[in-house]
Every structure is written in C-alpha cells, then in structure tokens.
Design brief:
- The structure is a single chain.
- The chain is an alpha/beta fold.
- Helices cover 38% and strands 22% of the residues.
- Strands 9-8-10-11-7-12-13-14 form an eight-stranded mixed beta sheet, sandwiched between helices. Strands 3-2-1-6-5-4 form a six-stranded antiparallel beta sheet.
- It starts with 5 loop residues before the first helix and ends in a 6-residue tail after the last strand.
Length: 384
C-alpha cells in the first residue's frame, strides 16, 4: 500500500456514497458513511510512510512548507476524475493524519435541497446578516452555496465570497461573482472583509466567523448596506446570538445587541440525522425569521426568550429543531430514538410529535407524501 494512489481511494469512497475519508496511523483508511465511521475494506493499516506518500500526492510546495513547520494545512484538492475535496492535514501523537471531505461538483439549488421557501426570500434581501449554523459536517456550506446560487440566478449584483478553502466554484450568471481563498488570495477572513468594502460588493459570503475581528467586520458590513452570509459552529439561534455578543468586550455588548437587532435577517441551525432505513441522512433544522418581536428581544438582552418566539412563529415561517424532528419522525423519515438523541427538550419534542401524528391522521393523503413533507432530504451524502 506504500504506492497507493489517493485518486483511486477517493473514487472508491465516492462510489460507496461516503462523505469523508481519513488516514491515521494504525488503522486502514477510514470513511464516514451515512454519518458513521467505518473501515474501508481491503486495505491494511496505515503507517507514517504511507500517509506521507499520500500527502506528497495532494500538496503543493506551499502546503508542504506549512506541514513541515508542524502547522495544520487546509486546502482544496481536485482528483484526476475532476471531483473536489476539502482537505485538512494535521499531526497527532507525532504522526501525520489527513481528513478529506468529499464535495459535490454541482451546486444544488434551493429546490433540489427542498429548503424552506423563506431562504429564497432571505437571499434576495438588499442588506442584513444571514447565518447558517450547526456542527461540522451538517451541510452549512451546501446551504450557503445554494443561497448564493439563487442570488446569482435572480439578481444583478456583485457577489464576493471569502472561503478557506473555496469549496463550490460559481460561474457568472445574472450576477458577477468573485471568490477569494484565504491563504491563497488573501491572508485572513478579517483582512478580506475589510478589503471587500472597497471592492463595490452587494453580497459578501464569509465562509466562517472565527474570531472577534471577523465577526465585528461582518456585522459592520451588514450594517453599512450589504447582504452578508456566514456560518458559526453553534446549535441554535439563541446560542448563535449569545456567541456573537459574547465576543465583544462588555462595554460594547449593548451596541452589538442593537446592531444585531437591526441587521439580522435570519438564522438557520441544522444537523444531519440518519434516516430510519439507514441509507442516508436528512437535515433537521431550526429557522429564525427576525421579526419586530425578536429584534426587541435581542435589543433588550432577552435572547433566552428567542426559542419561545420561534416556536410560536409558524405564521412567519419559523420552527424549532424539536418541531422539525417531530415532523420528520411522524413522517417515518427518522426514528423516535434517533430524534430523542438530537432534541433540545424531550418533553416538548414528545408534545410536538403527538401533534404531528394527529395532523397526519387528519390530513389528505396527497398532503403527507414524503416529498411534500420533507423540506431538505439529503440522501446524497456528498455534502459539506
């Protein structure tokens, strides 16, 4: 296996429907299939020379220098078959390790992903802040790519994306779109954001709000008349708002709450849940639409009341994670046991589930088809 060709293993992983591929010492190549880690059959355990050989196949001289310094390296890799991958090379216990994320080459539309119609409305807003949150591997970048593509198809404007690395390659459609990669085209998210304000953008995508400087620049950009889309590794709208506010020094948190109240358009929090048949994963979501009532809660420092406002905001297109899990469970898309491991309040989830079952029993058959009921079924695991 010392002479293994990484392109062959990536192609094999893709054919199996895996979302991730890992190389680490002492184990054969490991893949994530439908959310579960397992061994790729037919390969012996990896050794340091094997892993270094793989690294040499996928890295440029610049990446090699970063790795030789002992730093982690993030970059994209296009296989010989033309498929794109996000790669992270790191060290553990003195050995090298590699994580590949297998990406889709096409950009799915909002309709393809069966995302809530509210996201199409969010995408065409003239200004404000849209956040897509969730744990790693929950589909955040795919959701953002679909929203950017929706803008690109339906609006004449200038879009700038700042990513690390670039994952989906957009082409100019109705809009002009420029994509900048951190550590290739610019040194950091914060620097790229500051520069973007001098580059005449209408829409700015920030791949991740990692630190205070980036968060502050993104909030300011939204406040100054741009539509800003970004991600955070948080698990709900309330936690997302608190995370942003807490990055500011105490004396500036009041101003931050006011900025968020005036500029947040919506927050999407999502997680992937294994389907009941074990053949894929489906996205369960929480969706916040920033109404006047929610803006008032943010401004007054009452973010702990935001989940209650979301739960009672169905008329405005909002729903909580527990409500969405109950919907998916009632439709038979996921199991009750799996939903209980993901829900925020088990008692609330059970109450919503009872109501969802009642709604299904009283609805017409044409209204409860799996396709009509599922907002975002992700049976193709090649998502980010």
């Amino acid at each position: 296996m010392k002479d293994v060709m990484i392109n062959d293993i990536l192609d094999e992983s893709r054919e199996l429907g895996c979302s991730d591929l890992h190389f680490t010492a002492g184990l054969p190549p490991m893949v994530r299939l439908h959310g579960r880690i397992q061994k790729l059959p037919g390969y012996p355990d990896c050794t340091e020379p094997i892993i270094v050989n793989v690294i040499n196949q996928i890295t440029t001289l610049k990446h090699k220098q970063v790795i030789q310094r002992g730093d982690d390296a993030d970059f994209s890799y296009v296989s010989s078959a033309g498929h794109r991958h996000r790669v992270n090379v790191y060290r553990q216990r003195g050995y090298h390790a590699i994580a590949f994320r297998l990406l889709r080459n096409d950009i799915p539309t909002l309709a393809d992903l069966m995302l809530p119609p509210l996201l199409a409305e969010f995408s065409l807003r003239p200004r404000g802040l849209i956040l897509v949150t969730g744990p790693t591997g929950s589909g955040k970048s795919t959701t953002l790519a679909a929203m950017i593509d929706h803008i690109n198809r339906h609006k004449n404007c200038h879009i700038i994306t700042i990513e690390d690395p670039i994952e989906y390659l957009h082409t100019h459609k109705q809009s002009m779109i420029n994509q900048r990669e951190v550590n290739v085209d610019v040194n950091s998210f914060a620097l790229a954001l500051r520069a973007a304000l001098r580059e005449d953008p209408d829409v700015i995508l920030v791949g991740e709000m990692r630190d205070f400087e980036t968060i502050a620049a993104a909030v300011t950009a939204a406040e100054t008349g741009h539509l800003v889309l970004s991600t955070l590794h948080t698990t709900g709208a309330s936690e997302t708002l608190d995370r942003i506010i807490d990055t500011y020094p105490p004396h500036a948190q009041g101003q931050c709450r006011s900025q968020l109240a005036n500029n947040v358009v919506g927050i999407v929090s999502q997680t992937l849940v294994p389907t009941a048949d074990g053949k894929g994963r489906v996205a369960a979501m929480e969706l916040l639409n920033s109404t006047d009532a929610i803006a008032a809660l943010i401004r007054e420092g009452k973010t702990y009341q935001v989940p209650s406002s979301i739960a009672t905001g169905r008329a405005k297109g909002m729903f909580t994670l527990d409500q969405d899990l109950a919907r998916l469970t009632a439709q038979g898309r996921i199991t009750r046991e799996e939903a209980l491991t993901r829900c925020q309040e088990p008692n609330e989830f059970i109450r919503y589930l009872d109501a969802a079952h009642l709604n299904l029993r009283t609805s017409q058959p044409t209204q409860v088809s799996a396709k009509a009921g599922a907002r975002r079924a992700i049976d193709d695991p090649l998502i980010n």
